[in-house]
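ingest -> fold -> write
write: protein_1
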Amino acid sequence: MTDIISNTANDFQIRCLIVDDEENAIDGIADYLKELHNFQIVDTCFSAIEAMAILKNNSVDLMFLDINMPRLSGLEFLESLQNPPIVILTTAYSEFALDAFRLNVVDYLLKPYTFQRFFQATQKAVELFKSQRFSDTPTVDKSNDMYIRQGDSFQKINCNDILLIEAMQNYLKIYLTNDKFIIHQTMSAIKEILPKGTFFRVHNSFLVNVNHIDTIGKTRLTINKKEVPISKYRKEAFMNSVVYKKLMSK
């Protein structure tokens, strides 16, 4: 998670990365962003490979991502990221919309799009950004107790009791043994505050507590009788991770 730039919801900068293999498309997004407040372009690039390097070395809050790119498509790239920023997909192809929203993108812009449509997409990103930074971000104290907003109050949950977390567009469902909670948050934001070495993102939509894994299969694992898919892009990383080795040493 990037640092909060200001304590007020009106004083912030959303750091953006533009990824597209067409220079005109990049220039068009950049020109539109110049008309809006609170957006700062960190970098631009022409491929997912370049974008990977930029994300490793820069703090990015929002990524404008093309789908049809050489070697690695935007969707394949997004699927491979463990902690993706907020994403607005930009593409000339409508048939990928279902896959896009399965990956929890904030919006899907079909080229050519108008400034009005672009503005609507960026406002969704702004609202999500503000919800992550200024309102519902859970906090964890030294005893591993997590405090999440439920209506007008806060609910205390011990992180060790979390079985898994499932992403549902801009919301998360937190599974406990005998309870569930839904919060307005993103997976990448909550992953940053959870205890290190205990949770692993095995799929773009699932973050699991490795201490509660019952079985591990070829493409799925089970936790408390619930089947969870393991992304082919994350399985190798999971099998080589510290948390997996910790699990196998028990």
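write: protein_2
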Amino acid sequence: MNIISEHLNDFFSLFYPSLCCSCGKALGRGEDVICTFCQHYLPKTNFHLKRDNAIEKHFWGRVEIFRGSSQYYFQKGSRIQHLIHQLKYKGKTEVGIKLGMIYGTELRQSSDYDDVDVIVPVPLHKSKELSRGYNQVDLFCTGLSRAMEVPWEKNNLQRMRATETQTHKTRFERWENVGTVFGVNDAKKFEGRHVLLTDDVITTGSTLEACAGELLALAGTTVSIATIAYAMK
């Protein structure tokens, strides 16, 4: 029966092939969401293995994080941009889960992430999440949680009001835009814990800085940061 099922799958794949969400080519047998070639050649940062890396230096003098890392380097027109576009705007929710599972496996290579207690996404305002249908960072957290075997918490860090898009703002304008819009509902859930704060792409870091500031105001809380991509200057 399994042999028949495999042959049927091969037959249908000739006419309706599953495509890699990164390069758009047909996935081979055993491949899922992102082809093996792309997984190998996407531009990894390996920041999780390096202390005082570019992410951590990015927040020096701004907010005190324990570790900072990004999965890939982000460049316009790259396959990483295409992947994130598929995730955010094309409904390819499986991309976020897949990337999270890949990165969660890599983060386990560093002992600095062994004591992470909870994974927390940068929240969308409810109106934007309702419009999009999901928060893309939640999906990244889902994959991270599965790979790291650490729970993730969706609703305790909240965006209290909607903000304008950050795309064309300066660093100061971005900070003004998000500086007072986040809050924690139940402080006890995060007090004394190592929180892994996550987002999709880090550019100026203003949103992550604002969220980390709220978390660090809680008694005994440690914050590390992990994102899908880092936009180099």
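write: annotation protein_2
The chain has a mean pLDDT of 88.
The chain is about 40% helix and 15% strand.
pipeline exit 0
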